[in-house]
TrEMBL record:
<keyword id="KW-0343">GTPase activation</keyword>
<dbReference type="InterPro" id="IPR000195">
    <property type="entry name" value="Rab-GAP-TBC_dom"/>
</dbReference>
<dbReference type="InterPro" id="IPR045913">
    <property type="entry name" value="TBC20/Gyp8-like"/>
</dbReference>
<feature type="domain" description="Rab-GAP TBC">
    <location>
        <begin position="1"/>
        <end position="176"/>
    </location>
</feature>
<dbReference type="GO" id="GO:0005789">
    <property type="term" value="C:endoplasmic reticulum membrane"/>
</dbReference>
<protein>
    <submittedName>
        <fullName>Zgc:63863</fullName>
    </submittedName>
</protein>
<dbReference type="GO" id="GO:0005096">
    <property type="term" value="F:GTPase activator activity"/>
</dbReference>
<dbReference type="GO" id="GO:0006888">
    <property type="term" value="P:endoplasmic reticulum to Golgi vesicle-mediated transport"/>
</dbReference>
<dbReference type="Pfam" id="PF00566">
    <property type="entry name" value="RabGAP-TBC"/>
</dbReference>
<dbReference type="InterPro" id="IPR035969">
    <property type="entry name" value="Rab-GAP_TBC_sf"/>
</dbReference>
Amino acid sequence: MCPLQNLEMTCKHVKSLTCSALFSIISSFKWSVLECKVARVGSNSFVHRDALQEQLIDIILEVLKRNSQLHYYQGYHDVAVTLLLVVGERMAMAMLEKLSNHHLRDFMDTTMDSTKHILNYLMPILEQVDAELHDFMTRAEVGTIFALSWLITWFGHVLSEFKHTLRLYDFFLASHPLMPIYLAATIVLHREQEVKQTECDMAMVHHLLSHIPEDLPFELLIGRAQDLFDCFPPPLLAKQAALQSRSSLSISSFQAFQLSTLHQRPDSVLQPGDDGELWRQGNRIVKVAVWGLSATLGAAVFAVAQTAMDWGPEAFLQLF
């Protein structure tokens, strides 16, 4: 997420977004940091920054123009740029539009109420697994705001290694919309000893948790997050989270997604670019070549492509 200088928004959603305002946001994006991240996963070159910025603006504005019910939120471009780098402009636009109406839908409302509701799942998950940790964090009054950027950018803003961002996107694309909050809980649980050894003070605990270590075992954490989800699915926690599942637009739309996958057929439309155990038991300027990173997204990208015809055939066919 970038600082929204000269704009009347912080973490609030906005009802409309002009091209100039969006350009201001994206221009302040930390491109040099992204370049370093991408270089570490083996790319030979980085797209000319001006070209990438224009493509990113085009994608976001087009999605918002097509979907008047959606509202830009701070951090949305972190998701968009990740898709853009991996699958190219046309596919990124299709994927972003679909995700915006499904997995990211709660973040794109006119207020942050739905986002807060999703964050409310974090503490009940912790309570189910480690009551002592839950009680410690409750006494510290740390809340869940430390996990906000994790949730709304799918960790894309906070991870220093681009390969880890891609792996998590792979996981989230193939999972329930609330899976990012389960992964957030898994990370907190993984750092349980660090948290408990910290002074029981809101500022101290928030500072610790808001900085994700670079050496986290993400494959292990992904497995544990899935275990947590299986043990404590959203309907089981909805009452504790003061949220009825039906009030979440992301959850309700995901139910339609699940139904569509029952009828999906294998296809080969999307081509790669050129270039456990339960927790308790232990484009306008230049045409750019698509990054050779698409394989990293793995099965989840193919799953999105395979169901695209069911989700929105008109939008999907416009790509070809």
